[in-house]
Amino acid sequence: MSSSTKAEPQEVEKEGAWRSLEAGAFRRALLEWFDAHQRQLPWRGIDDPYAVWVSEVMLQQTRVATVIDYFERWMKRFANVENLAEAPVEEVLELWSGLGYYRRARHLHQAAKKVVSEYGGQLPRRASELKKLPGVGPYTAGAVASIAFGEVEPVVDGNVMRVATRLEAIEGDPRKGEVKRRIWELAARWVDPQRPGDFNQAMMELGSQVCTVRAPRCGSCAVRQWCRAKKEGDPERYPSGTAKKSPQPMRGRCCVVYCQDEEGSRSFLLRRRREDGLLGGLWGFPGCEKIGQRWPTVDELAQQLQEPLGETSPEDMERSMGTVTHIFSHRRLKMRVHQLRVRSRQSPPGERWRWVGAKELDQVASSALLGKIHQHWQDS
DNA sequence: AATTCGGGGAT
DNA sequence: ATCCCAGAATT
Fold first, then answer.
1. Could you check: is the Cβ of residue A14 within 7 Å of any atom of nucleic acid strand B?
2. Which nucleotide is nearest to A215 (CA to C1')?
3. Who contacts A200 (Cβ-Cβ below 8 Å, separation ≥6)?
4. Is the CB of A103 within 7 Å of strand B?
5. In this structure, how many other beta carbons lie within 10 angstroms of the beta carbon of residue A298?
6. Is A56 a catalytic residue?
7. pLDDT tens string A174-212
8. Strand C bases, protein C-beta under 7 A
9. Can you tell me the distance from the alpha carbon of A144 to that of A152, in angstroms, rounded to the nearest whole number?
């Protein structure tokens, strides 16, 4: 097949050949589209590596729309890295409440302390150095290095995986093994040496706005002429082999222990969860969960309430007020909710128990599960 | 290489 | 209901 028979010289050719020949045209097309169509986001156009870092950590496995409010509140409260380093972890977790993956907040906090103590308050600019910070992996290191410091580093996130597997018609799960390694290699070759940060953001923006999981808008894609998947006719086929496991069932039982004063305002007894494991270190209603189909017994629940309340018989807790369902990515929790009214707020022992007024319930470090249970309890 | 970590929006 | 999102750390 001679090249003279080609109607369009820019059509997809041999494996990877166009990349060296037309990398410039590809980058120009993508960046031109990005310059015209990028969304205005709170962390864009700010010349502050700390802000870029915070946004990238919040954006790990989390949608842009969800992050925006959290980011703005965070930057108002922890305006710079020293500010964050000095804050108590309790307050850090409080601002993170509801965002999920709470280890991110702990790592960000630890990393801020490290930046202050070991880097003089200046975030390192090299990806290899950034990666030494807790909570900073290959993606975040590349993102901060390229966006905040202009280092020529690639990024590969879920968007880039999708765009790349389609551009190159790559088979297999891009999240693992050889396929993953190959995509990082491609991303490194593609990144624009002049505008690495914008290029990386453009790839991700393209993935989220045009090259979407379902119903990609190939008709308005700036780089469609380089796309093998489009040429094949079924871009939605990529990425392939990405089946997920369904969440394990889990059963729980908890108790809303409350106290009501003369004016009728309520307060609730909360327990802090152990540091490791699910929702580690967060506050919630006392209770227990087990993997499997069997419900924890009321006895187990009563036993747990013994520490703050003394002896409580199972009969003290009125019959279950129904069930709250909460879905984590890997677990599906059905939680039976009980209630127990006590006469006085007995002083809670130790650091793992506290009383919280109804109005302050949204100001504690907690997960969305607490709010869901409280809501369910109010409605019953 | 597989698992464990949240939560929610889109379909 | 299912998928997956600007992933990282641990086992």
1. no
2. B11
3. A142, A143, A146, A147, A153, A154, A155, A160, A191
4. yes
5. 18
6. yes
7. 999 999 999 999 999 999 999 999 999 999 999 999 999
8. 2-9
9. 11
The Cα–Cα gap between A92 and A84 comes to: 8
* Å from the A361 CA to the B2 C1': 37
Q: Phi then psi for A349, rounded to 5 degrees?
A: -75, 140
Q: How far apart are alpha carbons A93 and A87 in whole angstroms? A: 10
Q: Give the CA distances from residue A214 to residues A26, A211, A268, in Å, rounded to whole numbers and listed in that order.
A: 24, 8, 45
pTM of the model: 0.93
Those residues whose C-beta lies under 8 Å from the C-beta of residue A282, and which sit 6 or more positions away, are A93, A97, A102, A272, A273, A365, A366, A367, A370
pLDDT tens-place string over residues A267-321: 999 999 999 899 999 999 999 999 999 999 999 999 999 999 988 877 888 788 9
Q: Average the pLDDT over A207-225 and give the result.
A: 97
Tokens of A96: 């993170």
Query: Is the C-beta of residue A101 closer than 7 Å to nucleic acid chain C?
Result: yes
Give the mean pLDDT of chain A. 93
Residues 6+ apart with CB under 8 A from A261: A267
Residue A16's pLDDT is 55
Closest CA to A210 of A22, A10, A37, A28: A37
> Quick one: which of A138, A137, A153 has its CA closest to A196?
A153
Say if CB A267 and CB A358 are below 8 A apart: yes
Q: Does the pLDDT of residue A235 top 90, yes or no?
A: yes
Question: Helix count (H) and strand count (E) of chain A?
Answer: 14, 7
CA of A307 to C1' of C4 (A): 41
pLDDT exceeds 60 at position A222? yes
Å between CA of A123 and C1' of B10? 36
**Contacting residues 36-75/A vs strand B (CB within 7 A):** 61-63, 65-66
Q: Rounded to an integer, what distance in angstroms lies between the CA atom of residue A318 and that of residue A321?
A: 8
The pLDDT value given to residue A20: 55
